[in-house]
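User: Hi! I'm a student and our assignment asks us to look at how structure tokens line up with a sequence. Could you show me two examples?

Assistant: Happy to help. In each example below, the sequence comes first and the structure tokens follow. Example one:
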Amino acid sequence: MTCGARTRAGTPCKQKAIYANGRCKFHGGLSTGPKTEAGKEQARINGRHGGRRRKPKP
């Protein structure tokens, strides 16, 4: 049994490692996000950081 999801090239995925939802680790679907109030608050805090710090250009 293979995954069967469509790849970017339009061909079916040939992965054989299938999870319980019937898809492989690459095509399992997107995250549904935080569900608890604590998780939602942590996501708000994480969103404030704005990404990785970089060295200033010389």
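Example two works the same way, sequence first and then tokens:
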Amino acid sequence: MRKTTALALLATGLIALGCGSGAADKASDSSGDNKASNASGDEAGAKAEDKPKTATIGQPARDGKFEFTVKSSKCGVAKIGSDMLGQKAQGQFCLVTINVKNIGKEAQMFDGSSQKAYAADGTEYSADSGAAIYANKNAETFLNDINPGNQVTGVVVFDIPKNVKLAKLELHDSMFSGGVDVALS
């Protein structure tokens, strides 16, 4: 019993440490005491603050080290891939074409499974990494390291019910980032 409790405390501590480090970074970026470093060394952060909180299709939106531009969104797709190799949707596939540019100073891994989609009522949908393999010829959205200044364009796939329409995306540079919203309608 004590071993289980100790493991639970350790896991909670590690999660808090991982989440807390991002919160501390955000707090230091927004505090008045850090104006000098923002003005000289963090121009990307200052530019991101100037942009609206919700972007639209075709408008760049930044989260962490990535600048996302949603190029298009197409729903109502029943199957992805070929007759021999492919995947059928449980409901319908929504294919979201996204350009991802690394605006940081070191390589950053883009993971399509860290992206989320939302219906108008707030229902959250996870990306379908298995279907994305068939939607992308070169696995652009599957654990792809992007070096500084480089960019990739790929398709993130969501399998949603047939009667649902997506209202927005929440795009993340990692599974721990705060994310940025992009309106789809």
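Here is something you could point out in your write-up. The domain at 54-183 is CATH 2.60.40.1240 (Immunoglobulin-like).
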